[in-house]
Amino acid sequence: MKKALLLMVVAVMSSTMSFAQLPAGSFGQDFTITDQFGVSHNLYNYLDQGYTVYVDVSATWCGPCWNFHLSGALDDLYINHGPAGAPGVSAATTDDVMVIWIDGDGATTNADLAGTGSNTQGNWLNPTGTPIDYPVANPAAALAGTINDDYAIAYYPTVYRICPNRIVTEVGQLDGAGLYATLQECPPPAFQNNDPSMLSYDGDVATCGNVDVAVTIQNNGTS
């Protein structure tokens, strides 16, 4: 019986490890998506402008994704903190955030996105009677697969915060204020060419002889 329980625990741990999200501190890979209005959006372009980008990878058939979508958390984040002058963004915006919603299922159709397909929870473009203004993307299967692989998507919804220095952190299904509060964990936007930052210490932590000093650094500047 003990052996059976041990095998079960090992199986559960292996399964969990196999489908883990990106480790905290990972670098976000670039992508370009086209939104519901036919407008192209490039991740690194927003990061290079100093925006912190919140990415929600969901699927139209996913119940928890739909509930989070209906909560209006991303709407609040975009309206109050999105790029100045962008459609639907408040004139009093803090102008330091971008929001992007991506359907990670390559089989999703535009009809599913609009709520008229057979594999959807509702109208993702207009879930509450007010059209969504932030980018909503239904990428082709190949691009969806690349994004899923690059960001280790193991379940929907997965909500990531990507700081201007390209560091990715999973923040989860917080409300708008909670999501924005996590922005304080990002370093300030670059303002000079060279601004070295130590991301981690990777060397010896205990030794009786020579010390192997190793660090991971990043130029947080504009070069």
- What is the C-alpha radius of gyration, as a whole number of Å? 20 Å
Major beta sheet, strand line-up: 1-8-7-4-5-6
Regarding quaternary structure, how should these chains be classified? single chain
Q: Return the string of H and E elements.
A: HEEEHEHHEHEHEEHEE
Q: Please outline the major beta sheet.
A: 6 strands, mixed
Strand content: 15-25%
State mean pLDDT (0 to 100 scale): 88
The N- and C-terminal alpha carbons lie at a distance of: 60 Å
Instruction: Please mark out the parts with pLDDT under 50 across 5 or more consecutive residues, or reply none.
Output: 1-19
Overall SS class = alpha+beta
Helix content class: 25-40%
Describe the structure.
- This protein has 7 helices and 10 strands.
- With 223 residues, the protein is α+β, with helices and mostly antiparallel strands.
- The strands form 3 sheets. It has a 6-stranded mixed sheet with strand order 1-8-7-4-5-6. Strands 2-3 form a two-stranded antiparallel sheet. Strands 9-10 form a two-stranded antiparallel sheet.
- It is globular, with a radius of gyration of 20 Å.
- It starts with a helix and ends with a strand.
- Residues 1-19 have low confidence and may be disordered.
